[in-house]
Amino acid sequence: MKASMKGGEKARLAVIRLILAAIKQVEVDERIALDDTRTLQVLDKMLKQRRESIRQFSDAGRQDLVDIEEAEVVVIQDFMPQPLSEAEVDGMVKSAVIESGAESVKDMGKVMGLLKGTMQGRADMTVVSAKIKAALPQ
């Protein structure tokens, strides 16, 4: 935050303040101090909101607002852990399906439960969900 202030990066500073406000809001609402896992969940939620906004603004033809949201996504992603590669996600899905003993799409919750903690903030869970569905027999 201080580096952004000193560097005159007003847009980055605004996003950092949004992140801190979101974290503080959760801490106040739930009367807890957030650990790293919960903080990643807050950041992941912020990313999902931005992506949804980008989609809606694109549909409405508002490129100016799309650009603002995309800039915010870049800043938020700076605070996220290194994303998993496609191959890593595929490997983790396959091993989780085997480990959970999932036999059909009905057992998808078991597989998601195993993967959610390790993939939180490192992979788009909607993509992971689609990969799990594809890996499980109907």
Short description:
This protein is mainly α and 138 residues long. The chain is built from 7 helices and no strands.
Series of H and E elements: HHHHHHH
How many β strands by DSSP? Answer: 0
CATH domain fold name of the largest domain: Hypothetical Protein Yqey, Chain: A, domain1
| Overall SS class | mainly alpha
- Strand % is under 5%
What does this structure look like?
Helix content is 77%, strand content 0%. The protein contains seven helices and no strands.
What's the SSE blueprint?
Elements: H1 2-7, H2 10-30, H3 36-60, H4 63-78, H5 86-100, H6 108-119, H7 125-135
Helix pairs in contact: 2-3, 2-4, 3-4, 5-6, 5-7, 6-7
Features:
138 residues, mainly alpha, Hypothetical Protein Yqey, Chain: A, domain1, globular
